Prior knowledge:
Layout: H1 3-14, H2 21-27, H3 34-46, E1 50-57, E2 61-68, E3 74-79, E4 85-90, H4 94-104, E5 114-117, H5 120-124
Parallel strand pairs: 3-5
Antiparallel strand pairs: 1-2, 3-4
Helix pairs in contact: 1-3, 2-3
Amino acid sequence: MTRSRAAALAALEAAASPLRAADVLDAIGGACDQATVYRSLHFLEEGGWAESFVLHCAEHGTERYFVSAGKPHRHFFHCESCHRFIDLGACRLGSLAAELEREYGLEVRSHTLYFSGLCAECRAKGGGS
Length: 129
């Protein structure tokens, strides 16, 4: 594990919400360049230290977000107006996954779920951008 990979992992572990590669670059404060951050995130994901998902936002486009795989699996809400992520807590889909496994003869190894819409603050302001 190189210093840049360790710095990227530390940034993911310290984050309260998913991070884009640009957020990781900002968090590590110039310890490496943008290309190294992308390579580091790819290495971390391939090695099982990080997980990612792709989110499409009408205002910001499509971006990949990363979280530490060392933290308990969680789900998030993305506000389409202020672009914050709200942590919805620990995964509550275990029983649903088990039911789907039984019903369809599957083996669920992972899943990704996020919600998008307007957070309470943006709803109170009148509904978005």
